Amino acid sequence: MEIIPVIDLKDGQVVHAQRGERDSYRPVRSQICRGSDPVDVVAGLLAVHPFATLYIADLDAIQARGDSIACIRQIRQRFPALRLWVDNGLADPAACRDWLAQDLSDLVLGSEAQRDRAILHALSDGDARRHLILSLDYKDDRFLGPPDLLSGPSLWPDRIIVMTLSRVGSRGGPDLDLLRRWRKEASAKKIFAAGGVRGGEDLLALADCGTSGVLVATALHERRIGRAEIAAVDSDAA
Question: What is the pTM of this model?
Answer without folding.
Answer: 0.94
